[in-house]
Amino acid sequence: MKVADILKVKGDGLFTATPETSLRDAIHLMTANDIGSLVVLRDSHVCGMLSFREVMNAIDVKSGSVREGTVGQHMATDIDVISPETDLNDIRRRMLERHSRYVPVVDVSGELLGVMSFYDIAKAVLDAQSFENKLLKAYIRDWPAETEE
Predict the structure, then answer these.
(1) Whole-angstrom Cα distance, residue 35 to residue 11?
(2) How far apart are CA 101 and CA 119, in angstroms?
(3) Using an 8 Å Cβ cutoff, are 101 and 30 in contact?
């Protein structure tokens, strides 16, 4: 299974920010849309990610309040990107190796096409396994009787 297959089912809702977006506005956008990450774009190209992890790191430990600043000051910049042709098993391996929860999907020109979350991948694997399980059960149930010769 390829990323493009998952994106077709997932839909095309994308939430992004720029490095200049205030951190508070980005958190509000994430909260209002119940999403765990924002892809950060500069000139229509991915330059970082802001996820729950970076937001937690932006909280002042003494006061418990979110520090002032911009997305660019708090975003992760060492991110992995994948193409629509990336295989599901490759994504799972890469996400586990990098401890990533979200990976942007870009085309050959660098245009953002979507975001794969660990949830999206787990759901795709579960759906594929459930479908295969149903097929196997149907096959076993319809197993032809052996004929004696």
Answers:
(1) 14
(2) 8
(3) no
Residue with tokens 């096409």: 113
Domain count of the chain? 1
Whether residue 149 lies inside any domain: the answer is: no
Q: 12 is in which domain, residue-wise?
A: 3-141
pLDDT tens per residue across span 58-79 = 988 778 888 889 999 999 999 9
CA angle at residue 40 from 34 to 42, to 5 degrees? 150
Taking Cα atoms as reference points, which of 12, 11, 29, 9 lies closest to residue 21? 29
Considering just the CA atoms, what is the radius of gyration of the chain in Å?
20
Q: Is residue 117 part of a domain?
A: yes
- Paired strand residues for 40: 17, 48
Cβ pair 71, 23 in contact under 8 A: yes
Q: How far apart are the first and last CA of the chain?
A: 43
Per-residue CA distances from 92 to 30, 89, 96, 104 (Å): 24, 5, 6, 14
Encoding tokens for residue 15? 């939430």
CATH number of 59's domain: 3.10.580.10
pLDDT surpassing 90 at residue 50: yes
